Amino acid sequence: MIELQLNHKIKALQFDGGGEFRPFTKFLNEQGIVHILTFPHTHHQNGFVERKHRNIVDTGLTLLAHAKMPLSIWDHAFTTTTYLINRMPTPTLHNKSPFFMLHLQFRL
After folding, report:
1. Would the pTM count as exceeding 0.90?
2. Strand partners, 13
3. 51-106 pLDDT, tens digit each
4. How confident is the model at residue 24 (pLDDT cuts 50, 70, 90)?
5. 53-86 as b/e: b if 16+ CB within 10 A
6. Given this model, what pLDDT does residue 65 score?
7. What is the pLDDT of residue 70?
8. Residue 38, class by beta-carbon neighbours within 10 Å (0-12 exposed, 13-18 middle, 19+ buried)?
9. Which pLDDT value is given to residue 107?
10. DSSP string, the chain
11. CB–CB of 32/3 below 8 Å?
12. CA-to-CA distance for 20 and 6, rounded, in angstroms?
């Protein structure tokens, strides 16, 4: 999607060093993409993803608590959280939402 729809070449992908992505290295190398693996149990090497994950979890749990809903529907709360975050303006995109920027890209 990045290469075809946004016209940007993927240069590198970074995954945690858990092992499940190691077989993916050969495919990425064939595509000319650098495969970066962090060391196991070193979440600080993947800080952006860790912060984003924590934001989704904290917001989803807050939605559940505020609505007095059971924890058993956490997956719906986290999906809703992601939906809302993607539609909120962000300073990174000059106070536009990622959703708006994606639709703007397709209209051009």
Report:
1. no
2. 35
3. 888 999 999 999 999 999 999 999 999 999 999 988 888 888 888 888 876 666 66
4. confident
5. eeebeebbeebbeeeeeeeeeeeebbeebeeebe
6. 96
7. 95
8. middle
9. 60
10. -HHHHS-----EEEE-TTSTTTTHHHHHHHTT-EEEEPPTT-GGGGHHHHHHHHHHHHHHHHHHHHHT--GGGHHHHHHHHHHHHHHS-BGGGTSB-HHHHHHHHHH-
11. no
12. 28
And the tokens for 19? 């092992």
How many residues make up the chain in this entry? 108
Encoded amino acid at 88, one letter: M
Task: Show me where the domains of the chain are located.
Answer: 1-41, 45-108
Phi, psi torsion values for 13, nearest 5 degrees = -125, 135
Q: What angle do CA 93, 96, 67 make, to 5 degrees?
A: 115
